[in-house]
Amino acid sequence: MNAFGRSTLLVLTLVSAVSMADDQTPMTKEALAKAVPGSTMERTNDSGRVRNWTNNEDGSATITRMPRPGGKQGVQKTSGHWSISNDGRYCLTEDWSTKEGGPVDWCRHVVAGPGGALQFVN
Which of 87, 90, 95 lies closest to 34 in space, CA to CA? Predict the structure, then answer.
């Protein structure tokens, strides 16, 4: 069980690095290593499409993309894997097919936001 418990939902949002308060520094690699395993995360893109995933303790991930608001495309699922880079960024590889726009690899620094919610930093 991780430090937050198995059923913790970590909702992540994108914030601009310039909008971070001076006292908000990215979480360390060690802090992320404790917070991420077993967690569920969610991200909404600019068009309103929600993607959520579970960070399994073995480094694998189960990823779901919900349809765009008003869209006709159904729910899509794929696997992937998460990691924490040497410089302390949370990284996710989404194994979508090329037809579905994949594969997708990305990394972001994470800060603890208001109320302890985790936020991605651009």
Answer: 90
Contact 14, 119 (CB under 8 A): yes
Helix (H) / strand (E) containing 35: helix 29-35
| Each residue's pLDDT tens digit, 54-111 | 999 999 999 999 987 787 888 999 999 999 999 999 999 999 999 888 899 999 998 8
Under DSSP, the state recorded for 68 is P
Yes or no: domain 9-121 corresponds to CATH 3.30.160: no
Token duo for residue 36: 């991420």
Which residue in the block uniquely carries the two structure tokens 């399994």?
A: 56
What's the pTM value of the predicted model, to 2 decimals? 0.74
**Domain-by-domain residue ranges, the chain?**
9-121
Q: Whose CA is closest to 112, among 3, 15, 2, 1?
A: 15
